[in-house]
Amino acid sequence: MALSLSAVSLALFILTAPVSLSTGSNKCVARNFGHGSVVCECNSTYCDSIGKEALPPLGQYSSYLSSMAGSRLEPGQGPVQVNSSGAGLRLTIVPYQKYQKIRGFGGAMTDAAAMNILSLSPGTQDQLLRQYFSSEGIGYSVVRVPMASCDFSTRLYTYDDTAADYALDNFTLAPEDINMKIPLLQRAQAMSPQPLSLLASAWSAPAWMKTNGALIGKGSLKGQPGGKEHKTWAQYYIRFLEEYAKYNLTFWAVTTGNEPSAGHITNYSFQALGFTPEEQRDWVALDLGPALQASSFPHTHILLLDDNRLLLPHWAKVVLSDVHAGRYIHGVAVHWYMDSFVPAEISLGTTHHIYPEYYLFGAEACAGWSPIDRGVKLGSWDRAEQYAHDIIEDLNHYVVGWTDWNLALDQTGGPNWVKNFVDSPVIVDTKHDIFYKQPTFYSMAHFSKFLWEGSQRVGVSASQKTDLEFSAFVRPDGSVVLIILNRSSSVIQFDVWDPMVGYIPSTAPPHSLLTLAWNTH
Questions:
Q1: How far apart are CA 235 and CA 221, in angstroms?
Q2: DSSP summary character for residue 311
Q3: Subcellular location, in the record's words (predicted)?
């Protein structure tokens, strides 16, 4: 049936017209773009927010619900009960089973993210940064910062493109750092109630240090670990840390390099630097570790791998079984791509059990990267569930934090010089000076807002088989947080039993994410 133009216009208006949904202190201005759920629209003067989290008194619990049906961190409260509600399913908190402590959650300040944020008016920029970093926002505490260009840049560059400059006399930060990333990081830090944990990752060494003479494609450092290229590449890291320190930005950690496996792929389309685990082990032992130790940044952590977890535990075994490399390393950074190919217990679990003194950290994830499901999907609830499922699975296998990829992208999922467009929790519409908070933004919020640094994962057991996925934590102040994901299309009723306080009767609507929090004393 052919629709008239006016009917089409009306249908489009109904599809994208704002609808207010109750969400705490400010309601979500919801827009539906036909991808299963809604986005929340924000501008310079208005954005939904749950504000600062305030725990109810002992004997009460707080709940926060997000769902495919349109709830966005919808707050609730109720009394803790003396008796069970009689629901068939009971989730029991086991506080004496103690696991890893949380480091934090966050995203990446890529060139693309910085460009998108700065494309908005100053008021809207502030609004966007507040959503992530302020105490009224979702409590991001980690920011990954690419060292020089990556695919989410508009050009190829490093900080020293002068051939054979082994003394790094020409090392200089790029305009992208000085005019965009650094000012935004300073603004984010000023808003944040705690010091941000900055994490640096390099995509490629300068072309003159590399076997293929190019930033892209299959190539690694010339020579051998301990040789002049490897020593210079380690000093390049130190120079980067020194330059950022001039702007009062210090780094919690550096990684040994983004996705070293990519540098072994013939015709790889964007910036990469190949390392085998053996080469990475020797470079850390002979070059990067000693250089960092001798620098002004001896307390900056080194995270190995920075690549997909399916490379574990083999990669960790090669590097960490070497006493010379192992003494400089603090943790293992993993990316989420290809997670479905290897069970978390085999990769993350095995690595933790062999090397419990090294922490596991989620360093990169994004939706819309797969060729069969590419780019931005405004309002995709499926992607929100992918995030929550992966975070819960990682947390339940000893991971101490989880970092999303670009903090903000445009409506095409860029800019990206190689057109490797993906999705982001925040999508910017420069023309209208607005941004959309995707369902994945709220997925992140259910963890980043409530799992403060130092929160410790504790045991939680289900009385019967269930479709629910969950993880429980005791925070530094003794309060308990339980995060529950229901990816099924059924309503699931359950009780939470905390032996310290009693029963919390609860319901997980279909396709929902629920955070429960309560005091124990």
A1: 14
A2: G
A3: Lysosome membrane
Instruction: Encode pLDDT of 316-329 as tens digits.
Output: 999 999 999 999 99
Question: Residue 338, Cα to own-chain centre: how many angstroms?
Answer: 16
Name the CATH topology of 103-445: TIM Barrel (3.20.20)
Can you state the percent helix, strand and coil of the chain, rounding each to 5? 30, 30, 40
CB 160 within 8 A of CB 171: yes
Please report the pLDDT score of residue 349 as a whole number.
98
CB neighbour burial string for 143-167, b if at least 16 within 10 angstroms, e if fewer = bbbbbbbbbbbeebbbbbeeeeeee
Category of 331 on φ-ψ map: left (φ > 0), alpha (ψ -120 to 50) or beta: beta
Q: Judge contact between 224 and 276, C-beta under 8 A.
A: no
- Cα–Cα distance for residue pair 146/153, rounded to 1 Å: 10
The pLDDT value given to residue 25 = 54
Domain range list for the chain: 5-100+456-518, 103-445
Hey, what amino acid is at 370?
A: S
235-288: pLDDT as tens digits: 999 999 999 999 999 999 999 999 999 999 999 999 999 999 999 999 999 999
Of 157, 201, 104, residue with least CA distance to 399? 104
The full DSSP string for 416-479 is: -TT------SEEEEGGGTEEEE-HHHHHHHHHHTT--TT-EEEEEEESS--SEEEEEEE-TTS-
State the pLDDT at residue 11. 42
**Which fold, 5-100+456-518?**
Immunoglobulin-like (2.60.40)
Q: Which two tokens stand for residue 225?
A: 């670990």
Q: Which listed residue (41, 53, 176, 259) is catalytic?
A: 259
**Which band of pLDDT confidence, cut at 50, 70 and 90, is reported for residue 64?**
very high
CA distance between the termini of the chain: 64
pLDDT in tens, 205-235: 999 999 999 999 999 999 999 999 999 999 9
- Cα distance between residue 243 and residue 145, in whole Å: 13
Give the up-direction half-sphere exposure of residue 187: CA atoms within 13 A in the CB hemisphere.
20
Contact 129, 191 (CB under 8 A): yes
Report DSSP state, residue 262. G
Q: Of 364, 385, 393, 469, which one is the catalytic site residue? A: 364
Over residues 456-480, the mean pLDDT reads 98
Length, in residues, of the chain: 521
- Exposed e or buried b for every residue in 505-520, given b needs 16+ CB within 10 A? bbebbebbbbbbbbbe
For this structure, is 259 an active site residue? yes
β-pairing, 502-508 vs 359-364, is: unpaired
CA–CA gap between residue 170 and residue 206 (Å, rounded): 12
Question: How many CB atoms lie under 10 A from the CB of residue 351?
Answer: 25
d(CA 253, CA 230): 19
Q: Where are the beta strands (DSSP E) in 111-238?
A: 142-147, 197-202
In the three-class reduction of DSSP (H, G, I as helix; E, B as strand; rest coil), residue 103 is classed as: coil
5-100+456-518 and 103-445 agree in CATH topology? no
